[in-house]
Design goal:
single chain, about 230 residues, alpha/beta, Nucleotidyltransferase, domain 5, 5-stranded mixed beta sheet
Length: about 230
């Protein structure tokens, strides 16, 4: 399973007003493991000024970007990097709109045509934590991911934090089939002899700790938890 975690920085908030991408950062996950030497990262010359509001967010000035490559110079490398992968983006609608606008200027198809799928981690976070703040900073705090270095936004830095956040949010959702890697179908299909199983009962202290955990989860879920409804 190949996944790409992607983030961008832009000259402003509205692609429809002609704002452009000025940084793209991508990291690769294979079977939920970060591949350290597989990354795509470029600063880009947007051929237009950076808005003051955007500059305050990412700190990428017109002077810094002046000698950087154009989007058209790196587009083929970007599309090859995401080809066939699930692409994970926080608030995907924003980044994809900018990517689509850049591709349209070059007469290319929309971004989703070049990858297997696009997953919006913001939508996922809102499903998991309804009614709570689900910005990248808030999720880092919730999942105890160190983001102290994030004094300014940066595409590659944010992609790295998002990779950690996404893996934390989806922990436990791996395919059960992955557990059987390296075993033949005949080995996996062997019948289980229940007479040889050892049953270890939880201690009273463990039961109390478990109940405390369930109570905490119940408080975090405004909709209520199934196990408290007797379902």
């Amino acid at each position: 399973m190949r996944q790409i975690v992607l983030d961008t920085e832009t000259t402003g908030l509205e692609a429809k007003q002609g704002h452009r991408i000025i940084e793209i950062g991508c990291l690769e996950l294979v079977n939920r493991r970060l591949i350290e030497d597989r990354r795509f990262h470029y600063y880009l010359n947007p051929q237009r000024p950076v808005d003051e509001g955007a500059l305050a967010v990412h700190g990428l000035s017109d002077e810094f970007l002046a000698d950087k490559p154009l989007f058209e110079d790196v587009v083929d490398e970007l599309l090859a990097f995401v080809e066939g992968a699930e692409v994970i983006i926080h608030n995907a609608a924003f980044d994809v709109e900018f990517l689509d606008a850049e591709l349209a200027r070059l007469g290319r198809a929309s971004f989703s045509q070049y990858c297997a799928s696009v997953t919006d981690s913001l939508k996922l976070a809102r499903q998991l934590h309804p009614g709570k703040r689900n910005s990248l900073d808030a999720l880092c705090e919730r999942y105890q991911i160190n983001h102290a270095q994030r004094t300014l936004h940066g595409a590659l830095l944010d992609a790295g934090l998002l990779a950690d956040v996404y893996l934390a949010m989806t922990r436990g959702q791996d395919s059960l089939a992955m557990s059987f890697a390296g075993h033949s179908q005949a080995q996996v299909a062997q019948p289980l002899d229940t007479r040889r199983l050892k049953v270890v009962a939880a201690s009273e202290a463990e039961c109390v700790a478990h109940e405390a955990l369930l109570e905490g989860l119940q408080k975090d879920n405004k909709a209520g938890a199934l196990w408290r409804r007797g379902v």
